[in-house]
Specification:
single chain, elongated, Transposase, mainly alpha, 95 residues
């Protein structure tokens, strides 16, 4: 079962991992967070600060992508309904 952590907790954990002499694994264990999870948070924080690889999505970019994909799905569903309605009324008109 995965735990949910607040943005504040994640931010503080990342700051501790980056400023500590300990490894990310040690900091993660001290905080009760999986080392892989903390490593991912650190990586994303670096991307958000512009220190990540070229083309990596920032957190804001990811959120925008999710929002846009949801909007596309909604619009595709609307188009499908309108297409079916058009076909129904066109067929009804032929009778």
């Amino acid at each position: 079962m995965s735990k949910r952590y607040t943005a504040e907790f994640k931010r503080d954990a990342v700051a501790l991992a980056l400023s500590s002499e300990k490894t990310v694994t040690e900091v993660g264990r001290d905080l009760g967070v999986s080392p892989e999870g903390l490593r991912g948070w650190v990586k994303q924080a670096k991307v958000d600060r512009g220190e990540g690889p070229a083309g990596a999505l920032t957190t804001a970019g990811r959120e925008e992508l999710v929002r846009l994909r949801r909007k596309v799905r909604e619009q595709e569903a609307t188009i499908e309904v309108l297409g079916k309605a058009t076909a129904f009324f066109a067929q009804d008109k032929m009778r």
